[in-house]
Amino acid sequence: MGNCCVGSSTKKSRKERRQNPFAPQDGYQTNNQILKNQPKARILDKYVLGRELGRGEFGITYLCTDKETQEVFACKSISKKKLRTAVDVEDVRREVAIMKHLPHHPHIV
Description:
Its EC number is 2.7.11.1. This protein is α+β, with helices and mostly antiparallel strands.
């Protein structure tokens, strides 16, 4: 007798293992939100997005300019498609909570 490798008949595909908790169910789009009780203002109504500044695990940060005041900011765009697990969603919520509690600083929006 020797060692052998046998594939499991119950092995899940990569897609099955990494389900997006915010993906459409049964072919229709749900209205799930990552951040509850947030205004649904469209970013592009207030800001002009510019060049890409950087990339992270869940999104891309862009240079953006306020259409009224011409102030320049950084805007982080987070892709819901990349939030595969409940842990990913909690990581994003925790990051937002931390940012909300940062002290006022000219380089932090």
